[in-house]
Amino acid sequence: MASIEEFDPLNTRVPATKIEVTVSCRSLLDVDTFSKSDPVVVLYLQAVGTKEWREFGRTEVIDNTRNPDFVRKFVLDFFFEEKQNLRFDVYNVDSRSCNISKHVSSDFLGQTFCTLGEIIGSAGGRQERTLSGIPGKKCGVIILTAEELSNCRDIATMQLCANKLDKKDFFGKSDPFLVFYRSNEDGTFTICHKTEVIKNTLNPVWQPFTIPVRALCNGDYDRTVKVEVYDWDRDGSHDFIGEFTTSYRELSRGQNQFNVYEVLNPKKKGKKKKYVNSGTVTLLSFKVESEYTFVDFIRGGTQLNFTVAIDFTASNGNPSQPTSLHYMSPYQMNAYAMALKAVGEIIQDYDSDKLFPAYGFGAKLPPDGKISHAFPLSGDGDNPNCVGIEGVLEAYFQSLRTVQLYGPTNFAPVINKVANCAAEITDGSQYFVLLMITDGVISDMVQTKEAVVNASPLPLSIIIVGVGPAEFDAMEELDGDEVRVSSRGRLAERDIVQFVPFRDYIDRSGNQVLSMARLAKDVLAEIPDQLLSFMKSRGIEPRPALSSSPLPEFHRHI
């Protein structure tokens, strides 16, 4: 069996979450002479770089049935930013041989191909697919259900204060702070939180802080939580004041007489007979909230609306010349097409209608040569939608034949157009992703910054991919990872822009698939958190998972 790491040529992936895939089949072929089939399902994952299919795992074998509901699940790491191709092969097993290849010829019952995103993005996380692979025969159906693995996703917010702590500073009082540790199975402790330092007081009141419950106790509510109290020193040699222990269960009772803790210093206690304590720490407040995930919102019906905007300025070069960034070679995709396909093929799994608005900017349009910074690639001013990613590519190539590349490179008109759409639907049912692909420096940076700041409270993320050899330093101003974008003294409410230069992702060996996978991984990695930040800012909770048709009663098994 292959480990999940083998499918990561970059070896840098951090999963958004773990997904449990449950498999059932209906109306399988009957290949056994005197009984029904004994089916097993084998899952293969496709490696990103080599495209090789490797076995990930298999269900148990269920004897004598054409309608199996398998108990053994497949647990997969889910990466929103990658297209995770899956292949499910169904076999009839006459023996309990580990070697599936022995069953390949006569006992192959069918297969299906899909992505993990397609299953998650289906109503209720349930997808029914027709099995194929045996010419002239109906192979039945396979039912795939994806569910996020339940783990402790609660977030605790608490506030503490202390009274009469020991005085540690010669010329002042103390500068106290708290350090929280969770206990491990082997008796060791792992640090999980530090409060801020409160200067020059023996009676500090710390700010409320938030911590995932799993970080505090790993889901075990009675696990020991140790809290140490220190006096901060500039040189890092903080003085130990004392410690106390508690547990998540005790803390969750909130403010009461049991949540006043004596701070004890074992060394002092051993030396001084009259030693009582080194002060007390009191829990002032404690509340728990659920932490929702990207998958919660997708399963609740949130759709991703994907819009594309492509740079048609003259600096790209004449599209008929091989030196042009827009050159349409019969042998390989240009950088624009690669970026569009890499990002679009992943996002399309989360958009049920597969209709994608696509725009160009910086071109002169026929018949009168008017310059436009937001023209529909479809050529239809009333309907900018293209059908699927292939439809967007087709419209892009068609536009290259009909418009004149010109300039300048203005971003604000397209951003404002998509932001206006996003402003109409802010209830959490839709989230907009704008992909802008450009070869040069923005001409309207002041207006673009204003557009980004105005759009930052909306359900919108903007991905900018720079293609070609130009210097893109100015673009970094829009990517608010380090410094939040501002305009006219206003800061963006959220970081909604991600910029990357495509050249950083091009595989040296010329492997376009790997280049595209690297690009998609990086530019899409922030989308789940950006979506969650919008939902949290609006106090939006995910709707219940969309219902789908249940299995007939007689097929259900406990």
Short account of what is shown:
The protein has 558 residues and is α+β, with helices and mostly antiparallel strands. The protein is built from eleven helices and 28 strands.
Describe this structure in words.
Residues 1-131, 138-261 form the C2 domain. Keywords: Calcium, Metal-binding, Repeat. InterPro entries: C2_dom (IPR000008), C2_domain_sf (IPR035892), C2B_Copine (IPR037768), Copine (IPR045052), Copine_C (IPR010734), VWF_A (IPR002035), vWFA_dom_sf (IPR036465). This protein has 558 residues and is of the alpha+beta class. It folds into three domains: 17-148, Sandwich (Immunoglobulin-like); 154-290, Sandwich (Immunoglobulin-like), CATH 2.60.40.150; 303-538, von Willebrand factor, type A domain (Rossmann fold, 3-Layer(aba) Sandwich). Helices cover 18% and strands 31% of the residues. It has eleven helices and 28 strands. The chain has helices at residues 116-121, 213-217, 248-251, 266-271, 294-299, 335-347, 388-402, 412-423, 445-455, 512-524, 527-537, and strands at 17-26, 39-46, 53-58, 74-78, 85-92, 108-115, 126-130, 141-148, 154-163, 176-183, 189-194, 209-212, 224-231, 239-247, 260-262, 280-290, 303-311, 355-361, 363-365, 370-372, 375-376, 385-387, 404-405, 430-438, 460-466, 486-487, 490-491, 497-501. The strands form seven sheets. Strands 17, 18, 21, 22, 24, 25 and 28 form a seven-stranded mixed beta sheet that branches. The radius of gyration is 29 Å and the shape is flat. The chain starts with 16 loop residues before the first strand and ends in a 21-residue tail after the last helix. The model is unreliable at 1-13, 101-106 and 549-558 (pLDDT under 50).
